[in-house]
Amino acid sequence: MSPLPTSPGIGGQRRRRVLVIALAAAIAAGGIAVDDARQASPAVAAPDAGGLDLGGGDSSLLTAETETLAPGLVLTDFRRLQPAGWVTGHVMRADLTTPTLELDVLDSGTVTGGATVSQQIDGTGAVAAINGDYFDLNASGAPVGTNVSASNGLRTASSAPRQAFTMTDGLAAVQELMVEGVLTVDGVETPIRGVNTPGLSVDSIGWYTAAWGTHPLSRPLGGPGSLAASVAMVVVADGVVQSVTTDREAVMAPAAIADGTGVLVARDGAAATLAALRVGQAVDVTVGVNEDVDLAVSGAQRMIVDGVQTPDDQIEAARTAVGVNRDGTEITVVSIDGRAGDSRGMTIQELGDLMHDLGVHNAVNLDGGGSTTLAARRPGTFEAEIVNRPSDGNERVVANSLAFFSTAPGGEVTDVAVAPAIDAADADAVFPRLGRTVSAIGLDANLTGVPVEGEFRALPGLAVEPIDGATAVLRGVRTGESRVDFRVGGLMDDASIRVLGELRRIRPSTTVVALPDPGQTARLTVTGLDADGFTAPIETADVSVESGADVTVTADGRDAFVITPTVESGSATVTFTADGRSVDVAVTIGHRSLTVADFADGSEWTAASDRATGTLTPATGPDGVPALALDYDFTKSTGTRGYYAVVPEMSTPGSLGRRLDGQPQALTLWINGDGSGVWPRIQMKNGAGTTINLDGPNVTWTGWRQARFAVPAGTPYPLHLQRIRMLEIRSAVQYHGHVEIAGLESIVAPDVAQPAAPVVYDPVITTNGTVEDRPQLVAVMSDSQFVARSPESGQVAGARRTLREILAAEPDLLVIDGDFVDEASEADIAFAKRILDEEIGDRLPYVYVPGNHEIMGGPIANFEAAFGETSRSIALGRTQLVTLNSSAGSFRLSDRDQLVFLEQELAAAAADASKSGVVVFAHHPADDPLPSKASQLSDRYEAAAFTEALAQFRADTGKSVAVVNAHVGVFHATSTDGVSQLINGNSGKAPAGTPETGGFTGWTMLGIDPSHGKVGPQPASIVEDRTRWLQAEVHARVDSIALDVPEVLLVGETAPISATVTQDDGRVVPVRWPMSAIWGGDGITVEDGGVGTAERAVAASGVLRLNPATGEVNAIAPGTGTVEVVVNGQRASVEVHVVEAEASAG
């Protein structure tokens, strides 16, 4: 049949089961209570944007936090994803009707001195400040515009008009400012074209005061490189000329302008006017600006004029801007981060759009880029700190700043605040028995911190252990929401603290610490997780540490540890333990470089390719060393093309390649680039026998450059080198290329035991049982990756077999979760449609979600022409299904509008009381469970924000949500903040992982029970609330199945039991998580690890008690039992005789 339309309501396509009929009858008879669709349904909470409109610019995934800095001054931090990329910024709004709020323009003390914003406000008591005017960068440092300080008067005035933010009589405006000045000599007036400005125009005179500083006055005269041919300098005190000079050397000396004096300088034709003055002659100098202002800071582009956006534009960068409302009583300051992974900056047009959304009536762009700086004193603290992230990596020395002050009374406590003492994600959560330190502070009317002592109290669920009058440790007692309050006299504040489920595992911020230099240290933190994937930082007081003699580990405050080496070279395994859960961190000290390939054997290397041709020849590298030249033709296809240099060892049958010594942390390779953007990767076989690729940077350069290829943490050793690959994955790019490679080396640290990756057996995948009796069934397959030119290939056979198995299982819907085809040519897409028509026809509705291979060799239009839209919303009764397009490796790059679509669908599901849950399908997972991390969303900020959006939906609405992905080549499942995350393995192509990591072929059946979808804002139980709503049954492909269990057991004996399936070309896979099976048999009691099953198993009669989770069988009574296991419909059984010990002895 044809694929689904965009938003169908899917009825039961398979035969209704008896359970469903009985349920419907019970509802009709009134025997089962159902939700009233007219009831209000909780909405998804809006970000705390302080009432600001931050959702414009076609943006999505908005997060925001707002806090009051001082009376009348409010700061909002935000991040959002725009079509062109991430933007992180800050909006500060000042209410000028607040009598205690004041502004000033500050600098270093002189206009050429320069200082960071932090230095300019240090000791002034400023509550907040932003950088100000553009300045004479890499020269005098003086502002280029007109700047007026409320406390120090006119600081600079430019000859040309420039847009400026101004204040007059307490009201703000944006207007053009410039100098107004006159030199009067003997009644003759001559214009003064600048005050303390770094640039005087030709034939003009400027006025300079002590505020200029010591920078030579040659700068405004064109110096140092283009000093005017004619110059003059006149010192004036009390209206009388003190000295006159036309000496060019004099203006090039450091300036020394005393207080109460001023200096006139002139260039070119105007120099004669000053040169004619005489010592002792009376002169009158009058300077000011063209408008009556009390304060001014200049900028550049006027982005908003009387509510209308201007056409001015400029490339994206970090930005600082100021806007005012219509009546001048409100200021809006915007600071945008730039050159960061989560913030590309903004163009002037985008900044204008934002200002317009914020209701600004007039706005000016101030200095940006590396100058952008925002400092603020957070409430309850004592000093301002930098809020934004300067794009230079640290604060830039700037000319001046616009500072905000509060004159509200200080020192007297008017309020109190209590919060976790550590600044970390999820610090408002704690595990049972573990501690969370909270601290309290008093606040004065200015919101400055004032030390206080008081009393802590907690609601049930928390136990309070006071440390002092302002600090306490809260210990988790009972899972759920709780609160702590702090009281001083009649003042009180409280904070919400979540007690999570039992601690299941802990993870360090890094599992491998490499210290190349023995003088280095490393800082790491420890985070805990419960069985639903909720996290909380674990404080150092709750963690015990064991380490070897080569390092010391000490607590760094409440939430971090510092690892310090004690030897020049060595290694250690550091074990962190909290509440009985442990995790290891491998530490290495020192490193050495080892040659892997010097290419002296270049003639023995061979070439290989995919969809490309080329030649591989010896060449000469840097400094005359041997090299290899790869010439390749990437014009033969639009699919992924590759040309490879194959190591000589691979010519030996059965070889794994060239073994690398030790435990490399990275490889380096010299590459003579062609600037084509080709992607170099180094193919390895790891210690687990899995083929992996180490990724290098795209070759966007020309000439020789050393590239680094990192080895992912957790990679099993030893490594074997197989190929050096040059790849092109961009279907729209075709070219001939030439690169040369030389000097492949490994960076090897001392050997250390690699920490074992924690295995998470999430019960969202059932290991013993089936989901077939659940009201809604959704089958999922993916990653067949066939091509039309090989219609009889194993991938095609695997796809057809999977479709037949799914059809026989009678689901409501099939979701093909990407990479059904391999190259996405028109022929491939047509062949995919043909297979679906032949195998499914009109017997099962399906939706096809595009993966990266749906655009690998052709445009997405090929897919859309055959299968329709790439993002969909599908109503499956009370469950809403949403599919997204991640074919380009990220949602934004694949379709910039679909994340807005996702938010709209989540909001609709939240508002619809009839909906109890949402399942989101996309090809790429947010996180790849394999060490290589090669198969996850490429934008890690997008991945985190996407995951958070789903978690927020569950938290705000109390409705269930899950996400189902593919792409990795293994079956896997985990959970994050109560959201089940499933990965379907390959349904045709060979798996990418080992059987132990879920590397086998098959498909997944999702079983959904909408009646359990609404779990509420505080779910009643851990795990069960997720799995009662949705559970997955993983159907491995089975060619044969074997069961290993002893045929004779003594009463009371415990024996191991195991099963394996053989699939495809002889792959043997153990029957255990993440593979689903049904265990049982005659005389068998199964304990599957579920709630209460152990107790039921003990109470049950039978010959054998079987626990698939532990892989053990217990003989409990004499007799004969038959142990049986069923995987994907294939069955194996063994008859087991249980005898008394005496009978066995006889």
Automatic annotation (TrEMBL):
SUPFAM superfamilies attached here?
Metallo-dependent phosphatases
- Domain of life the protein comes from: Bacteria
- One GO MF term, please? hydrolase activity
Domain Phosphodiester glycosidase: start-end pairs: 235-405
What Gene3D superfamilies does UniProt report for this protein, alphabetically? 3.60.21.10
- Domain Calcineurin-like phosphoesterase: start-end pairs: 778-932
Q: Any signal peptide, and if so, which residues?
A: none
- PANTHER family according to UniProt: N-ACETYLGLUCOSAMINE-1-PHOSPHODIESTER ALPHA-N-ACETYLGLUCOSAMINIDASE
Entry protein name: Multidrug transporter
From which organism does this entry originate?
Answer: Agromyces bauzanensis
